[in-house]
Amino acid sequence: MTRTPTARLMDGAGLARRVNAATASAVEEIRRRTGTAPCLATVLVGEDPASVTYVRMKQTRCAKAGIRSRHIALPASVGTGELVEAVAALSHDPEVHGILLQHPVGPHIDERAAFEAIAPDKDVDGVTTHSFAAMGFGLPGFVSCTPGGILRLLDEYGVDLAGRHAVVVGRSAILGRPAGMLLLGRDATVTYAHSRTADLPALVREADVLVAATGRPGLIRGADIKPGAVVVDAGYGPGNVGDVEFGAAAERASLITPVPGGVGPMTIAVLLAQTVEAARRRLGPA
Ligand code: NAP
């Protein structure tokens, strides 16, 4: 007997379109008032095809919203000192409102040093220790874009997080870790799982809200999803596959993100929205 999915899809692509439309209106308002459009600087080290594609996508989205782009391309052989200098120059450039350093930057580079060269008020990708600490303390600042996009999606679908058990699978600095902190900030009871977690399926079975952020296709079995759970799949692997076994999970979840079209589009939408917010802070509010 074939079972039909019961979960409602969380349409990240649709929400991202609405967020991007609001961003474009805000850009137009800033441009009319100040004569200047917000500007996002992108920094790319080397020519990794995936990174090249991501940066190009971000530039295209910027252009659609009326945000100016400045692109700095550095050879794969660049050293930490030179990269830090290039990022610091953008931090000091009054024409630049937001900075995105595309990662990974290469194993020979001290990535943390390069990220820390981004001025906190231009850290629209939310990658500096300053931004991370502000997010952890619930202070104003820029959040990591993918976790920020996940929270916007959950809000859009009216998910009440207070007192719910949120299980975040993955603990990277840009995704799992900050996602858990944002959920904690909303009074969820948060458990992190990672590659050393002893019994992942047992934890998944207890999750009211599951955030999968590992990049391991099909790691989360649909049969382990708690009936009625909210499932957010941030994983993205070759062939458009996420971390969650989608079909079987959709039979048990109440809400689930598709891959693609769920978390992905929200990441760029948050990046653009934060770039405009950075410009507004610099150029003065309306
Ligand atoms: P990452 O830095 O490689 O981190 C992966 C995390 O998954 C690590 O914390 C790792 O644990 C954990 N993990 C690996 N295998 C596991 C297992 N068998 N059981 C439990 N946990 C396991 O990756 P990332 O940068 O966070 O990205 C994760 C995924 O999200 C990727 O598919 C990436 O493409 C996607 N992503 C999507 C967006 C978007 O916009 N949609 C943005 C960023 C990333 P340890 O810490 O113990 O190693």
From TrEMBL:
Q: Does the UniProt entry include the keyword rRNA-binding?
A: no
* Swiss-Prot/TrEMBL keywords: Amino-acid biosynthesis, Histidine biosynthesis, Hydrolase, Methionine biosynthesis, Multifunctional enzyme, NADP, One-carbon metabolism, Oxidoreductase, Purine biosynthesis
**What positions does the domain Tetrahydrofolate dehydrogenase/cyclohydrolase catalytic occupy?**
10-125
**Pfam families of this UniProt entry?**
THF_DHG_CYH (PF00763), THF_DHG_CYH_C (PF02882)
Span of domain Tetrahydrofolate dehydrogenase/cyclohydrolase NAD(P)-binding: 144-282
**Catalytic activity as recorded in UniProt:** (6R)-5,10-methylene-5,6,7,8-tetrahydrofolate + NADP(+) = (6R)-5,10-methenyltetrahydrofolate + NADPH; (6R)-5,10-methenyltetrahydrofolate + H2O = (6R)-10-formyltetrahydrofolate + H(+)
What pathway is this protein a component of? One-carbon metabolism; tetrahydrofolate interconversion
Query: Under which EC number(s) is this enzyme classified?
Result: 1.5.1.5, 3.5.4.9
SUPFAM superfamilies noted in UniProt: Aminoacid dehydrogenase-like, N-terminal domain (SSF53223), NAD(P)-binding Rossmann-fold domains (SSF51735)
Q: Which residues bind NADP(+)?
A: G170, R171, S172
Record bears the keyword S-adenosyl-L-methionine: no
UniProt lists the family membership as follows:
Belongs to the tetrahydrofolate dehydrogenase/cyclohydrolase family.
PANTHER family the UniProt entry points to: C-1-TETRAHYDROFOLATE SYNTHASE, CYTOPLASMIC, C-1-TETRAHYDROFOLATE SYNTHASE, CYTOPLASMIC-RELATED
Q: What does this protein do?
A: Catalyzes the oxidation of 5,10-methylenetetrahydrofolate to 5,10-methenyltetrahydrofolate and then the hydrolysis of 5,10-methenyltetrahydrofolate to 10-formyltetrahydrofolate.
Question: What do we know about how this protein assembles, alone or with others?
Answer: Homodimer.
| Protein name per Swiss-Prot or TrEMBL | Bifunctional protein FolD
Q: Species lineage, top-down?
A: Bacteria, Bacillati, Actinomycetota, Actinomycetes, Kitasatosporales
Which gene name belongs to this protein? folD
